[in-house]
Request: fold
Amino acid sequence: MRKILTQSNLKFQLKSWSLLFLLSGSLLWAYGGDKKTPPGTRRDNVKETLHGVEIVDPYRWLEDQQSSETRTWIDAQNKYTQSLIGDFPGRDKLKKRLTELMKIDVISIPIARNGRYFFTKRAADQDLRIIYMREGLGGEDQLLIDPHGMSDDLRTSVHIRGVSKDGKILIYGVREGGEDEVQLRFLDVDKRTELPDKFPKARYFGAALTPDNSGMYYTLHGKEGSRLYFHKMGTDPAEDKKFFGDGYDPGKIIFAELSDDGRHLVIHVLHGSAGKTEVYLKNVAEDGPIVAIQKEIDARTFGQIAGDQLFLETNWQAPNKRIVAVDLKNPAQGPDDWREVIPESDAPINGSAFAGGKLFINYLENVVSKVKVFEPDGRYVREIAFPAIGSVGGVSGDWDNNEAFFSYSSFHIPNTIYRYDVANGTQEVWAKLNIPIASDNIEVKQVWYESKDKTKIPMFIVHRKGLQLTGDNPTYLTGYGGFTVSRTPRFSSTAALWVELGGVYAVPNLRGGGEFGEEWHKAGMLENKQNVFDDFIAAGEYLISEGYTNSSKLGIAGGSNGGLLVGAALTQRPDLFKAVICAVPLLDMVRYHNFLVAKFWTPEYGSSEDPEQFKYLKAYSPYHNVKKGVKYPSILFTTGDADTRVDPSHARKMTALMQSATGSDNPVMLYYDTKSGHSGGKPVSQQIEDSTVWFSFLLWQLGESESYTQKSL
Reply:
């Protein structure tokens, strides 16, 4: 499959946090809640000296996830959270509206193979996505893999990992809870029978079948790091041949992609999630040597073979990226000999895809997607038209197939999947979400504001048409600011509802993201990370100064790297915000690199093992900047045992510390799901329950007026 408009599968970002965090409704009540004391937490006298600085860590014992004391503590915290928000008036009404918004028919972009279309779909009355296949565009949906019977608690989910070129073998992943680790399984599509090849639960990158279905290339990431293997179909995976990766440490990510004709394998080595990329090429048809395409230069480059050329999307000598081509007959040529196909422009490239003999380039022009089509030699063909500012994602197709598929949405336009005829440039709707929201009444605007250092930062603000800037509108501010992730306009049904009921939804495009190329990214990473927090804080100040809201009506939320963002914001400016949702966060930035796969992220954040990097990490690390007696806002931390990406100990330790330190009466709570993780996989019924909890907290703490209770959902 030729798919890329973003490398989101390689960036550790969250799935649409706005879909999870942005709900309001008519049940905005004046609920005071009982004044209850959080569970007591034992303090240890753990102290250590790092680079001459004493580090105090009284809750390090909570890093031990399986200890009986930690398990008892988690149970007590969940009971405390439930006691505060479990019996809210109107809870049933909120849950009913959430059900209307979330229990809808959903479908994924299809993978086209030899006249067959593979996709996942979840009907409104189902909890999990099911893998289907159609024979031809107008064919009936044929069920292939249904996960509903795989576990009693519906916490086992499936997803497509690959399809053979002839459409006869489906590779799918089986995920438990929200773990990153999956099992790999294979289905004979014609016979509807499982093949004997079963890969145990592990962290895999890539899965590429040879054209004759005799074998598969894949990466297994273990304790020593990523290693590339070849699997001969029908044999025991334990006997697979390792042929690349020895010597690379666990902080490197290796993945490979096979050309459509099966002759060449493109191998990538990512130096963490923000470092340089090595690119190699191997002629597997002739069992040729592994040839370095890019190894020494400090640049991020991703390669794909289309036809008889290797195209590279690179930021080498081009912070906004460009597309170059490499001659497959002479791949060892140096970067100076690469042929430029698409030059760098003022608008950064947000991804590229190759289908129907054409190049699809997704540009970001002031954070709005613009997709342009080019010939292989770089000649401009056309631009794909869209109805409004928005986001394009998931462009997929084959080089020798005339059709491509992509998705499009905006804040006020539900996700729509289009089938695109590459030759004549026409498009038709393949699938569209039908969500019960009055989106015609939503206004979207983009504003620019100054950050602390006077840098101009763009921000999308979404609200109902005719909103009065009275200074007391309930406002939801969210952001990310890292790993080149671009927060472009995307639809969120819950955000749309928040807006419909009079709320304001704001998304600033913080430094550290990819909205304005690599320079924008570098301005928010490593020693410049404080810029991201300054940008976010300045967004809150702008919303207040311009009359949208005030600090008692301003809620913020973020997850993963966005959890670090709101954690830093609440410790640096506790007076600015009223309510904080901090989900699956990084918070102890002195020790983060010691856990799970966090060494992936040291090129983005740095490591406290380096004395210079330690200084700025400790300076902003939320866990190390909590001060006793400060009046902190209300906080809801969320995480779960099955998060095998960001260690749940961050949220556990920070909950304990904040409960002990805060000088305000605002509650500090932990919502801890023992089966949830970072990679989704929850049944929709559990998502609804979680959202009910999260927004009961948010609406309670923002103290919404009775006028909201009169609005119909």
Notes: DSSP finds eleven helices and 40 strands in the chain. The domain at 17-100+437-710 is CATH 3.40.50.1820 (Rossmann fold). The longest strand covers residues 199-209. Confidence is low (pLDDT under 50) at residues 1-33, 705-710.
